[in-house]
Structures are given as C-alpha cells and as structure tokens.
Amino acid sequence: MSHRAKIFWPLFGGWVVADFISKRLVESRLTPHIPTRIIGDWLRFTLNYNVGAAMNISLGGASRVVFTVLALVMIGVIIAMYFKTEVNETLQPLALALIAGGALGNLLDRLRSAKGVVDFIDVGIGDSRFWTFNVADSGVTCGAILLMLVLWSKPEDAPLRPAPPSS
After folding, report:
1. Do the beta carbons of residue 101 and residue 14 sit within 8 Å?
2. Which of 31, 75, 105, 130 is in the most buried spot, having the most CB atoms within 10 Å?
3. How far is the C-alpha of 106 from the C-alpha of 113, rounded, in Å?
4. Given 19, 109, 119, 122, which residue is catalytic?
5. CA 70 from chain center: how many Å?
6. Coil, strand or helix: which one is 132?
7. Does the active-site annotation cover 137?
8. How far apart are CA 117 and CA 111, in angstroms?
C-alpha cells in the first residue's frame, strides 16, 4: 500500500464515520432549533436540517437532486485528483480525504432523508452567530484550505503527471 493510500483511505473512511455518528447522536438527543450550550454561549449544539447547500444556499424544490449530483461529481473529481497525487505525498492526500469524506457525509444525509443535511455546530456570541454546520462541513472547509495551500506551494513548472499505478 502506498504512502498516499495509508493517509487517504483511513482518514476518508474515518471522517465519514465520525460525521455519521455525530449526526445520529445529535438527532437522538436534541430537539430541533433549541440550543444546548457546550462552551458558554460561544459553542452550542443546535439541531437544524438544511435542504440547501453551504450557508443555506437553496435551489428550491430542485435542491436535493442538484446538490446530490454536485456532490457525486465533486467526489469523483477528488478521487481523480487522489490518483494523480504522487504516491509519497502526505498533505495533498490528507486534504483530499477531508474534502471527499465531508462531501460523502453530507451526501449520505441528503440521500437518507428529505429533511436535508443535519447541521448542529453553532458558534458565535449572542445573536451574532456563524452558520450552523457539521463535521462533514468542517472537513470540506479545512481540506479545501489545506489543498489550496498545498497546490499554491508547488512550483509553477511542476508537471501535473499521473502518479505510477498503485493503490
């Protein structure tokens, strides 16, 4: 098994599992829209269902289908990028695993229920709050930032060639 595979596959699978378990626990223990303080007013768990995408972007009745297709395409692109990553890389497969794991986590929610994606991490102070999000969202966001930094740090003249075949 290549170094990139040892980084990517366990993190990818672990992120999907962590997201799935955290969402089911929250659904079983919280009432929708009623905040539970975790760290003062700064961090709360508030169960919400999001039929749209990030920051409640909505396409009306087409949201579920469109965002399902987009997630599938995104996962396919990320997996293709994984196979083009050098076999000895560490940070790029890590970033790709976070993005793909997060995308799959939210896709599973979208397929599981018409209610939408389970969001519950509620950060802010008083009425000034960030959008409610979940473990999958944090993976996509952190992975995308890391991937951007990794790709920006590569020399411009570095060829984007496929890595030699391996797992």
Report:
1. yes
2. 105
3. 11
4. 119
5. 13
6. coil
7. yes
8. 9
